Here is the input.
Amino acid sequence: MRRWVLAGLTVAALLPAVQSAQAQSQNASCHNGMSFERWLEDFKRQALTQGISQRTLAAAAPLMTFDQTIVNKDRGGAVFSQTFLEFSDRMIAKYRVASGTQKLQKQKDMFQRIEQQYGVPGPVLVAFWGLETDFGAGIGTLPTLTSVTTLAYDCRRTELFQTQLLAALKIIERGDLTPQQMVGPHAGELGQMQFLPTHYVDYGVDFDGDGRRDLLHSSPDALASAANYLSKVGWIRGQPWLEEVRVPEQMPWDQADLTILLPLSQWAKWGVTYADGRPLPNDASKASLLLPMGRHGPAFLAYPNFRMFTEWNQSLVYSTTAAYFATRLAGAPPIHRGNGTVAPFAMAQIKELQALLARRGHDVGKVDGFLGLKSRQAVKVEQMKLGLPADSYPTPELVERLRAGR
Here is the structure.
């Protein structure tokens, strides 16, 4: 393929620099016209007033640069457009269950100490550990300071990442990590549990007793920090989080909603049973009925502790997968595939659905092809209006009727 040459450099070689300059120019619009360089100097002055020393800023300066490839990666994220079964089948592979089980057994004493102190059981921590970084094997290799500096200047989530950049500098300031040690994925997460820098600062603990919080290289620090976080956001000691169940052919599907907690006795009256067919206990313990793929897909009782999984990651696909993985590590068998056929919805189809719902006045967030909680709630409302089973999961019939405006 022919390439033009300018002053000894190919256009292909110059292109990244040109794209970066164009992106910086576009981003200046959300910073009152400030160039990246001016914005960075202004940020550094603010950091000094927040307790960051000149020494830390000098050490971090070589990595506080703008990288357009980070912005490009930040526009991705299509993985969460997969269905629960697609995502969980891929992420909860046999080797991951076996490896997680082995780690729970091998480090039994450490997990017992963590649970004693924070109340969070080992299977929950190991589930997140496995999904986030394959038990610490894949923490990422990109310089964190470059990632958060780039995203702090980028217009998409400026305020969030300015906070993350300041937190990253605080991690350096207190001596936990050097700038060069801070590596991770493109969005700036750190360590074996992929904490954002603010979570690292707020919830990181020194569990191995070496005098610093190292969530990258110390598994005890990383796991205990995750337990500290879950405890602080509301984990209830000694309580379950998720349990597979079977649902009947007919029931009040609109009650299958994470915002609705009902006694197990009520679910039992409507015909919900344990996955093996045993009846639910006739007691007052409360849970929500979670149907991640509608009434024909897998079904779970989600107890109050399940909310901590959605606190960790708001994607329902991810949070349900993590909670299910934790039940497997705690000894539960593989789930059933559901009791019927679930029509697949590709990303483009979900985008169309979101646009149709938004046209009807629903707040679905961004029309992004991800079937999140807002989109599911809008689906439920329309299903109820149209007299369809209101299980919060779309069907081709629903889309057809929305297209027809009836």
Notes: Residues 347-404 form one domain. The chain is about 50% helix and 5% strand. Residues 10 and 317 are 44 Å apart (CA to CA).
